[in-house]
Structures are given as C-alpha cells and as structure tokens.
Specification:
The complex is a heterodimer of chains A (355) and B (366).
Chain A: H1 12-20, H2 26-29, H3 34-41, H4 45-58, H5 69-78, H6 87-93, E1 102-107, H7 113-123, E2 136-141, H8 148-163, H9 169-176, H10 180-185, E3 187-191, H11 195-211, E4 215-221, H12 224-227, H13 234-254, E5 258-263, E6 265-270, E7 273-278, E8 290-297, E9 300-307, E10 315-321, E11 324-327, H14 335-353
Parallel strand pairs in A: 1-5, 1-8, 2-3, 2-4, 4-5
Antiparallel strand pairs in A: 6-7, 8-9, 9-10, 10-11
Chain B: H1 8-16, H2 22-26, H3 30-37, H4 41-55, E1 61-62, H5 63-67, E2 75-76, H6 81-86, E3 91-92, E4 96-101, H7 107-117, E5 130-135, H8 142-150, H9 152-155, H10 161-166, E6 173-177, H11 181-197, E7 201-207, H12 209-215, H13 222-242, E8 247-251, E9 253-255, E10 271-273, H14 276-280, E11 285-298, E12 301-312, E13 320-326, E14 329-333, H15 336-344
Parallel strand pairs in B: 4-8, 4-11, 5-6, 5-7, 7-8
Antiparallel strand pairs in B: 2-3, 9-10, 11-12, 12-13, 13-14
Helix pairs in contact in B: 11-13
Classes of the chains: A alpha/beta (355), B alpha/beta (366).
C-alpha cells in the first residue's frame, strides 16, 4: 500500500522538493499540517495545501472517515461473539468472547488459562449454522503448552457435541467440514521462544491476516512468560508492551478478530499485606478491553470478569473436564435446548443485516 | 544487518543509530525508532518488517502438519505402565517438569529410574541417550543406582533381557556436584550444553532446587533471588526447547499457611512446593509425591506406600496413583476403582504384575 509521491499529479519541482525533504510516500504526508510541510520542504503555503489536498483526494479521504454512533452499533452487532461451551461464561461476557476487541485472562498457574484458550481455539471454528463463527485461529505459544494430545481431546468433544445437535440438512452438511482434522488444519500455530520472536511475529501478522481473511481469533499464550525474563531496563519493557498493546488493538479492529492473551499473577506488598495481582505492571492493565480473572476458592474454580466496558463484574463457576472448559452444572440442561437458544438468537440477529 | 533486503539508505541510518542487529531493531519501540534513525514512518515500517522476517523462525504452521510428524507425541517413559498412564505416556520432552515432596517421599528414586529409562530405544519409551544428574545437596546415591541397574530386567519386563544386558547404564549417566549458584550457572552454560550438543544426553535432572535458592539468600535479598531464579529457569527452558530434552527439577516443600489468600491450588495436603509463585509460573508440569500411612509387601520386601499426584499440567487431569518403592524401582499400585476404569479403556500395556491394595499380602491381580 505504498503509493509514491512521484505518482501524484503535481508539478515536478514540487515533487523534487518533497522527495528531498524525505517525503517519499503518500503515507508520510497523511498526518502533516500545511504549515509544517511548507517549513520542511520550503514550499509556499499554497503549494503545501495543494499537495495535501491531492494526497487526501487520492487516498479517498485518508484514514479517518467518520462514522455515526448508530453505524458503529450496527457494525458491532454484525460481528458475532465467539461462543464457548460454557453458557455461564458466555452470559458473563455478554454473549461470548467479543470479536474486534482484546481480552486478557489472568490467573495462577494451573487454574485453567491455557485450557480456556484451547477451548476457544476450537470454539471459534464451530460452523455458523450451529451458532458459531466458523473462523480460523492463529495460536501464538510462548511457553510450549500447546499440546496436541489435549487439543485433540477438546476438538473431539466439540465435534461430538455438535453432531448430537444436528437437526436439519444444513447442519448435516456443515458437520462434514467440522471434524478433528479440519479443526487442526484451521489452527495456525507459532512457537515463540523469547520476546523478540514474539515482537517479530506481531509485526508480520497483519500481512498474514490479510492473506487469511477467515481468521477470527488470535491467541497469545502467554504474553507474560517471555516478558518476565529479567529486563535490565524496565522502562524499555513498558514501552515495548505499550507498543504491543497498540498493535493488538489495531489488528483486532481492522481485521475483525478477537484477541485473547493470558497473563500470570505476581505478588505485591500493599500496606504490609501481600496479595496476588496480574503481572506486567500497572500500565499493562489498560491494554485489554476485557479482563478475566481465574482463581481458586477452596476446591472450586471461579472466573471473574473484572474489567469490561459493557457488563458488570460477574463471577461464574467453571470446571475443566476431559472435554475442556465447561460449566459446573452441565448435566442439568439438555444440550439440544441450550444450542437451539443460541442458534435462534443468532438467526434473529442475522436477519436485519441481510437486506 | 547488511543481510536485510533494504534500501542502503535505511541500513545506513540504522547503523548511524548504533543498532547492530535485527534483534536490536525490534527491541526499540516504534516511535523511538523513528526518532533515533530520523527515517520516515514508511521507512521504519519497511525496516521493522525486514527485521521481523529475519528474526522469525517459521511461518504459522497448521496444527495438522505437526500432528502428522513422527515425534509429535514423544514422551519419556517412567518405567512403570501405571505411572505412565497417569502421565499419559510419560514426561514431556519440552518444558520443565517439577517433582516436589517431603524428604523420603521417593523423588530421588523416581529420578534415578528416569535416568535408566531414557537409555532405552524409543520403542520402549526411552530417548536412546544418557542423562545428566546435577546434585546440589547430598552426594549422588551411587549404590542405589547400581542396585537399580542390577534389577532392571525385573522392572522392565517389556524389554528383551538381551537388550537390557547390552546397555552400559552407568556409563551414560553424567553426575555433576554443584554447591552454589555460581557453579550451577557455569555447569548449565558450559558442561550441560556440550553433552546435549554431542547427543550424549537427553534428560536433565536437577536435585534439588530449593537447597540452592533458599540457603543463599536472606529474606531481604528477594530481588536478587528472583533475578537468579529467573535466569536459571530461562536457561533451563532454552536448553529444553533447543535440544527437545525433558528437564526434571526436584523441589522441596514448605508448610502451607492456610490463612493466606493466595493459594496455588486446592492442595489437599498441608505442604506446598517451595520457591513460591515466581517459580510456579515457570513450571509446565507440577507433580507431587507424598508418603501415605500404608505399607505394602511383595515377596520378602515391604514398602511404605506413596502417592504421585498431578497438581497441574496442560494435558493431564488432576489425579494420582499410589506407588511403592522396591529394590527394582518405583512401581505404581492400582486401587480397585482405578483398575476397573483402566481395564475399560484400551490403554493396558505390558509390564510386570500389578498389585491390588486390598491387604498386605501379594495378589496377582492381573
């Protein structure tokens, strides 16, 4: 997308002055004011204004075309959330994991963060006629905890669950494309061994996402692990993390994917008492739109939505079974009823946009 | 830096900014990079993409491709089918496995057994290579190792006796005694990588951790201790992933203060692994061993029963198996309910007789 300045319809002397001042591509001119441009290139103010108008005209209004709030709302509703197999968690998140936003899962080791990530990596692939999103997933593994043995367990259980729900021909046909093999082939795995590899991968991801428009979920498990190695300069770490957060947010919105990251817990001393808080520092707390805290309460596992712009903090119980991440009182509701609620909800939401 | 496919002008600007490699470029945040090199934003974009491409090891691969590789589910057998079933095959070959427990629980016994089990060919659950055993406290139990070697054929009835007698077990176990952190770091950065590079070993055991990290630091030095612990764990992870080698760390336990809020899990015992949350975050598989109040007998031997439990692992359920320590090694003992579940599934393997926990006499239950 690099459009060079020499291709614009301007007089050659103007073009030469632009190039000499270092403005090679139209992208460089997008955020420059006329006064600044004329100072740097020694063009007259009028010429500078003409240049900028030519640039804006060519790029069709530049990057910022304004939307009304109603348009934004409609766009948001078109993006389905990623439904998990835990209806309580979906309810707490307001329908499922939101697409176009960044979500963070924090928790102590062993509480189930990786399990939830693996579950969502399978759930994003559930076909649309079952209420799912039918997308692919990019899974960035920094710890080595993406184990195929476990992924196959979760995928097999998901396929089985859906095959029990088949009610019509469309769903029957869809089941042919939803098997353990297709689930594994739609999961793109990257293994990063340190933070530089992670940063490199994130720089190259937008290109990958443009070539794979069906990706609807990006999982980073975990962000904390490579960044909690010893950093001599903590402010550098903060800057790198801020840049990373910006990149993730922009990828989420421009490519319409859900970004899911896991974080570790660390101990902080506050007023003489020690408590567990999410790692990576205070400023990292602003990186994710939604934050989920998984923790133990005795023998129970609890998930607490403690940061969300839409919903009040809710706490739900969950369990990790051989099939994956599930509600605790799974057995009470027959599966077919629950799924039909989902498909009906989704079908109803779909209709207004299908004009 | 010169190998990147970039306009020479950009490369010149980068070297003027004293950035010597693609990795250094990536470590500078976007806006800092623009300021430091004086390049335009689109140039900086090109620079970052080129640097990232050279630092990236491989493109995103579909998981199906990995699934079909021959060593996808590679595991290191523990030497007993009951315990292997608990671990769904054995130790993971990537990542750090921790085994903690009170003294006398049997951790060193299991570690010695693994040092022998790694030497078998892969068809018998080994990795066809030796082991490095780093001792930090007591001296290495060489007599016990000899005893285990002598009785290997009794433990591993799944392996042909001719193969067992042909293996020179003690030749392929490299023992390092390390008294403090500095010598541990030297050992891990020089001696161990050399053995790994030459393919002589494919198992690293550290027995035990807490001894080194606890004694050396007072409470006030926790910052220094954290730094050392992170450096140590980072070294272990790099070795493990670079050489696809299982790493087993033996850890001690501390008393679990039930009044504190930060629990590391629903531990049914009153003790928890030492070194706290910082270390727990670095561990992929956490196992615990404890002594029970029961004794079992086999022939003329008797043993206090232990319990090996999975505290957390990405691929294992929280579960446990009883085990006994005999002359020939550590052997799992199935309880009645576990036995019926196991018979129902298809994962019964070979291996010696299994003993039911009904009374003190032996029962040939299988």
């Amino acid at each position: 997308m690099q459009r060079s300045v020499s291709s614009l319809s301007l007089s050659p002397s103007v073009k030469v002055k632009l190039v000499n001042a270092g403005f090679q591509f139209t992208a460089d001119l997008l955020h420059v004011k006329p006064l600044q441009l004329s100072k740097e290139t020694s063009l007259s103010q009028l010429e500078a204004l003409e240049v900028l108008q030519a640039v804006r005209g060519e790029t069709g209004g530049g990057a910022s075309s304004s939307l009304t709030a109603l348009e934004l709302l409609q766009k948001e509703e078109e993006l389905r959330s990623i439904v998990t197999f835990s209806s309580q968690l979906d309810a707490a998140l307001g329908g499922g994991l939101p697409v176009g936003k960044t979500t963070e899962i924090c928790g102590a080791p062993g509480v189930g963060k990786t399990q939830l990530c693996l579950q969502l990596a399978v759930d994003v692939q559930v076909p649309q006629c079952f209420g799912g999103v039918g997308g692919q997933v990019v899974y960035i593994d920094t710890e080595g905890s993406f184990l195929l043995q476990r992924v196959v367990d979760i995928a097999t259980a998901a396929v089985q669950h859906c095959s029990l729900l088949v009610e019509d021909d469309e769903q029957q046909v869809a089941m042919a494309t939803f098997t353990v093999e297709t689930i594994l082939s739609n999961t793109f795995l990257v293994r990063c061994h340190d933070y530089v590899e992670l940063l490199a991968e994130l720089h190259l991801l937008p290109d990958f996402l443009s070539n794979h428009p069906k990706v609807r979920l990006l999982v980073i498990d975990s962000v904390a692990f490579p960044f909690r190695q010893h950093f001599d300069d903590l402010s550098q770490r903060t800057r790198l993390l801020n840049g990373l957060a910006q990149q993730l947010i922009s990828m989420a919105t421009s490519h319409k994917i859900a970004v899911l990251m896991t974080n570790q817990m660390t101990t902080r001393l506050r007023g003489g008492q020690s408590q567990q808080v999410p790692a990576l520092g205070e400023s990292w707390g602003h990186a994710a739109t939604i934050r989920l805290l998984l923790h133990w309460a005795g023998p129970q596992r609890l998930a607490n939505v403690f940061k969300s712009p839409n919903h009040m903090g809710a706490t739900v119980r969950y369990q990790i079974t051989s099939e994956g991440f599930r509600d605790v009182d799974q057995s009470e509701q027959p599966p077919s009823k629950r799924a039909r609620k989902h498909t009906v909800q989704m079908a109803a939401a779909r209709e207004p946009s299908e004009t | 830096m010169d190998q990147l496919e970039l306009n020479p002008r950009i490369i010149a600007a980068v070297s003027r900014a004293h950035l010597k490699s693609a990795r250094e470029v990536l470590c500078v945040s976007g806006s800092d990079l623009q300021r430091v090199t004086g390049l335009s934003s689109s140039d900086v974009q090109q620079l970052l993409i080129a640097a990232a491409t050279s630092c990236r090891r491989h493109h995103p691969i579909a998981a199906l491709v990995l699934h079909r590789k021959f060593d996808a589910g590679l595991r290191l057998s523990v030497g007993c089918p009951v315990l292997n079933q608990l671990l769904r095959g054995g130790l993971l070959v990537g990542g750090v496995t921790e085994l903690s427990g009170e003294s006398g629980a049997g951790k060193t016994q299991l570690a010695l057994q693994l040092c022998l089990s790694v030497q078998y060919p892969t068809q018998y659950g080994g990795l066809h290579s030796g082991a490095v055993y780093i001792c930090t406290e007591d001296s290495f139990p060489i007599k016990r190792l000899q005893q285990l070697i002598t009785d290997q054929s009794l433990l591993r009835s799944d392996v042909p006796p001719s193969l067992i007698s042909s293996l020179q077990f003690s030749d392929r176990i490299y023992i390092e005694h390390v008294a403090d952190l500095d010598s541990l770091q030297v050992c891990l950065s020089r001696r161990v990588p050399l053995l790994l590079t030459r393919g002589l070993v494919r198992l690293l055991v550290v027995d035990s951790l807490a001894a080194l990290f606890r004694s050396e630091f007072q409470a006030a030095d926790w910052l220094e201790r954290s730094k050392q612990l992170l450096t140590f764990s980072s070294t272990l992870h790099h070795l493990s992933s670079r050489f696809t080698t299982p790493v087993l760390c033996i850890n001690q336990v501390t008393d679990f203060l039930s009044s504190s809020d930060d629990s590391l899990g629903p531990l049914s015992s009153s003790v928890s692994p030492a070194l706290g949350l910082l270390w727990a975050n670095q561990v992929m598989v956490r196992l615990m061993m404890r002594r029970l109040q029961v004794t079992v007998a086999q022939g003329d031997q008797s043993s206090v029963l232990r319990r090996l439990e999975v505290v957390f692992a990405p691929h294992l359920a929280r579960s446990g198996r009883d085990a006994a320590v005999w002359r020939e090694g550590v052997r799992g003992v199935m309880r009645e309910v576990e036995m019926s579940q196991w018979r129902g599934s298809e994962e019964g393997g070979g291996g010696g007789p299994h003993f039911c926990l009904t009374n003190k006499e032996t029962n040939g239950c299988k």
